[in-house]
Amino acid sequence: MKQYTILIDSPDEKGLVYKISKVFFQHELNIISNNEFVDKENSRFFMRSVVAGDINASQLQEKLSTLLPKEATVHVIAPKKKNIVLMATKESHALGDILIRYEAGELDANILAVVSNYDLLEPLVSKFDIPFVTVSHVDLNRQEHEDKVIKTLQSFGEIDYIVLAKYMRILTPNFVDTFRDKIINIHHSFLPAFIGANPYKQAYERGVKIIGATAHFVNNNLDEGPIIAQEIIPINHAYGWKDMQRSGRDVEKIVLSRALKLALEDRIFVYENKTVIF
Amino acid sequence: MKQYTILIDSPDEKGLVYKISKVFFQHELNIISNNEFVDKENSRFFMRSVVAGDINASQLQEKLSTLLPKEATVHVIAPKKKNIVLMATKESHALGDILIRYEAGELDANILAVVSNYDLLEPLVSKFDIPFVTVSHVDLNRQEHEDKVIKTLQSFGEIDYIVLAKYMRILTPNFVDTFRDKIINIHHSFLPAFIGANPYKQAYERGVKIIGATAHFVNNNLDEGPIIAQEIIPINHAYGWKDMQRSGRDVEKIVLSRALKLALEDRIFVYENKTVIF
Amino acid sequence: MKQYTILIDSPDEKGLVYKISKVFFQHELNIISNNEFVDKENSRFFMRSVVAGDINASQLQEKLSTLLPKEATVHVIAPKKKNIVLMATKESHALGDILIRYEAGELDANILAVVSNYDLLEPLVSKFDIPFVTVSHVDLNRQEHEDKVIKTLQSFGEIDYIVLAKYMRILTPNFVDTFRDKIINIHHSFLPAFIGANPYKQAYERGVKIIGATAHFVNNNLDEGPIIAQEIIPINHAYGWKDMQRSGRDVEKIVLSRALKLALEDRIFVYENKTVIF
Amino acid sequence: MKQYTILIDSPDEKGLVYKISKVFFQHELNIISNNEFVDKENSRFFMRSVVAGDINASQLQEKLSTLLPKEATVHVIAPKKKNIVLMATKESHALGDILIRYEAGELDANILAVVSNYDLLEPLVSKFDIPFVTVSHVDLNRQEHEDKVIKTLQSFGEIDYIVLAKYMRILTPNFVDTFRDKIINIHHSFLPAFIGANPYKQAYERGVKIIGATAHFVNNNLDEGPIIAQEIIPINHAYGWKDMQRSGRDVEKIVLSRALKLALEDRIFVYENKTVIF
User: Fold this and answer.
1) How far apart, in whole angstroms, are the C-alpha atoms of residue A139 and residue A145?
2) Which end of chain C is less packed: N or C, by CB atoms within 10 Å?
3) Which CATH number do you get for residue B32?
4) Quick check: C18 and D34 CB within 8 A?
5) Hey, which chains touch A, using 3+ CB pairs under 8 Å?
6) D257-276: per-residue pLDDT in tens?
7) Are C185 and C229 in a shared domain?
């Protein structure tokens, strides 16, 4: 039997689980997994269920929506490979990690293309028979360059997620709006420490004993979008900033791949500039 | 309104969540938190709900039991300080950590007493106005000593948990049976590595790069009971086994206190020699 | 034979190790452990040796100083319990952790007193037969209060380290100057994230997935002194800021105690607002 | 100026550092980094120095050997890319991680070939223009198969390290002797827990809360060689053994790559079935 993922985000009120599980019961759905969370402070209810059964997804979505408070959002998601585009600049570690997983069939996604402002990573990407598109920023202002990037991205059709695998250009609000809640970035620090440029240099100057990486959705404020995943490694005084950068790469790529996997499996709710992750 | 914790452990079948949440709805319970897990391999359903409402706990327990498969177990637990006894031998770090938390009001429990086979820790314990009972093993065989310990423990009345805070005596099956699923131990290794005596020496001999500690319920097979919590710290070649022991103590005490807290908050299900923890 | 710890901090130049080890050899010292680090960027050499032998500490220090560049600092430290004073406000976890270690003989130090701006922790401290001095800030301005605290501290004689075990008052530059490089603080966040007040609330608002604690020396800029140790724990969306605070306490106390141990064992060099730790 | 790595492993005695650093001084060597460790229990001295200067490596090695106890071993290593061969079976994550690093120029090594008992990974490897050799075990007994593998390996000329990147065949003592201290394996558990086959299944059955991976040199006893690096990740009851395997892969690949890097940088001493790592 087919499996569906059901995501519900609703104002909290008594009886929500009862109403929802009643519908599941009436449709003779088999519950594979069920997660709920109530944010008491904001009085908000989140639920993610994986169910197996013989259903019409849009009818079920409709039915659940009717039962729930009208501010609720309900998604009944049928199994389907998601379409993603990767963006990168010069470094290959985060991109390469995704490519190896893709090749191994580990990602439930189609990589439509890799887009970069340099052609440096083309040799790597082309090994995997994935289209590589260079959109150079040379001789263009930020707006002109981004317009070309957006056009390029839109030429690929429907995109579920854009993964910034060390794409080192700042995005404008227009870009972020165009792909709202679809852009996943890896920041090479333990946010909110060391926002902005050269976080490893900043970390070196500050003399920290731990460095980290943060995967997050991108919003209009640089490095301030909802955090999906974070990880760290211990360091010591013997690490120069280049050593930090080298060691940090291992954390970056693991964290970005983990965040991508959570997104592809529809495990992330975004709200109040935070994430709820099941 | 009073809060109740409801624990349900049942063979899995369709409609469980529906049936249970219907009862919650009918009793106008406010769901504070809700966690479910289905072990697909063993077709077993676990649920922990914290609810607020005006209920009769035993009636609600009865009602839920009637609805569920007859092999299910249901506990509706009213808020009540649990009674615990600590046991220790010579080392004070794990015991001391619990005492400091107790003093700070961090533990929702009454410490009835500390029982030891030595009187070494009496000065520490007596600072906290907690009865300290020495049951020396000198001149007694294992059985005789344990009989005295059991009698001592039973003299305290109803005990919810016995916490072995570095109690360095092996328990017989009789002891374990007498306090089934109530004995929490801290083992000073990352189980199942280094079962048995002197795990730090074993770890030193093996040249590991990480050491750890494991809190677990005690069953008849030494160091093989259901694991509640584990934690580790990195070490290196410069650590002699005494250094490992010293560093390991920090992990031991944190892990044991964490396990105790999980137990006191009714967050642990035990089955198949494993734990489900919400 | 007595063991001495030798700390050398010098401009780097060729032959330093040779010159130093020659002196060790001539004095027939047994090298127990030897650590060196060269900060290439600042061309600075650090060395910590633990040696056993029959020596006159001040003569050896004199001899080494003569051999080394004149900007070098040399300390030959004979084994001697250090004198420390603890300061706290209301929370007992960090203070209690140190007290339990002290009682167990784990700290190579004399705790001269605990100083607090409240009397809340007096019952705990007095259990351990350690003087507790309340210096209330009520009806005093910052300067007046601090003057009284400094006078109190100076009344204890020579102090090696002042440990701020959750002392929740901001220190003035005068205080910091009076006890330069002697004040160890625990900050309840992963610095430099969440500098300032209520870091757990800040962390909650930001939706981080990891929280941490930082032990550091105090300098004139709040939360910006040289970092000694940092540690983290993973959290998730289900943690309210009170939960973060509760979980964070375990990290805070372990990190502070670890930093204190490093200081008591003369393992820390401070320079350029950073630490080198052997 | 050229940089050399000097490795010294010697019975401990007074004056070793003095004698060695005197030679460095006389040769006007610039010490880039210097690490020493004395294993007091076994009275053994280890030193790793990176020096810059104008030297004859074999003469310097000779000179140091003459000065030191005759059981000492001295290696003066000139900078030179090491030759490695990778071996794998079916899984691509550990192999792929090394290939991506290789492609990025991150590994100071030549990958001579990848050898496998299946041809499954050939498409991946051939993308990187690295020879892929299948030595099938079908219709061969263990000895016959291994003889063919050894012959294949020897056909590549001098090999510095053989990296078992999830090579799932047991090696005979003959194989291990042929490439003594040159074979690096990744074991998919936190050794010594779960030695042998299917460690993730074993971990699942045991109900552990943490899983890990161990990189080690291979000796005659399966999974019992000197440990180079270990790492872990926390898991919980919701992980089936397939989930553990999936999550474990991230740890495996990072740990194996880290161990390989340590080996390529000549940072590992092996003795007493342990490692000293600088």
Assistant:
1) 9
2) N
3) 3.30.70.260
4) no
5) B, C, D
6) 999 999 999 999 999 999 99
7) yes
